[in-house]
Amino acid sequence: MISPAWSAATAAVPPLTPDDDEARRWAEQELSRPVYAEAQPTPFDLFARGVAEFLADLLDPEIPAGWESVFAVVAVAVVVILLVAALVIWGAPRATRRGVDRTAVLFGEPEARTAHDLRVEADAAASRGRWDDAVVLRFRALARGLTERGVVDAPPGATVHAFARSAAAVFPSSADALEAAADGFDDVRYLRRPGSAELHREISRLDETLTSARPVALPAVTT
């Protein structure tokens, strides 16, 4: 006959084979211990593993057992080196939306064409006998060419004659020709006189001269 004391002692001992609910509770208690949380992979581990798997799938190498983590670290290092090299070679990405370029306005009018583009259009206008357009376009090409070289500045508010004076300061031997070209540009633009083949040739000749000339100074434009 089993004594009451023995029955009480055995009742306090948990069953060796728990039921489903008890087993689940034991598992949850065990997995909640800090040692299991510490063993979880860090975000860097997950990233490195992802890169390694990507490169492994890409190159399909035979990685020896136990070397997966080493390969992952090497792969991440390669990616970082490539990114740094790209920044060194090409520089940091620039914002695609830029402020208004000071040279986008020339003599009070929007102007996005290069000096080469303006020269081509001036020659095309001259070939059709459109001398007003040819004169205006060729002088604008002259001005844009000097600003592209960084020889003379032409802020949006600069007048044609202010530009001519600044250009004359760096090309003193062409001072008279620059002033005459500025007069011709203004006369044609404001309909004081029509353009002509001779005026177009003079401005074209001046443009070619200044393109190959060496400046002597770099003053700022005054309006």
From TrEMBL:
<feature type="transmembrane region" description="Helical">
    <location>
        <begin position="70"/>
        <end position="92"/>
    </location>
</feature>
<keyword id="KW-0812">Transmembrane</keyword>
<feature type="domain" description="Protein-glutamine gamma-glutamyltransferase-like C-terminal">
    <location>
        <begin position="138"/>
        <end position="207"/>
    </location>
</feature>
<keyword id="KW-0472">Membrane</keyword>
<dbReference type="InterPro" id="IPR025403">
    <property type="entry name" value="TgpA-like_C"/>
</dbReference>
<feature type="region of interest" description="Disordered">
    <location>
        <begin position="1"/>
        <end position="20"/>
    </location>
</feature>
<dbReference type="Pfam" id="PF13559">
    <property type="entry name" value="DUF4129"/>
</dbReference>
<keyword id="KW-1133">Transmembrane helix</keyword>
<protein>
    <submittedName>
        <fullName>DUF4129 domain-containing protein</fullName>
    </submittedName>
</protein>
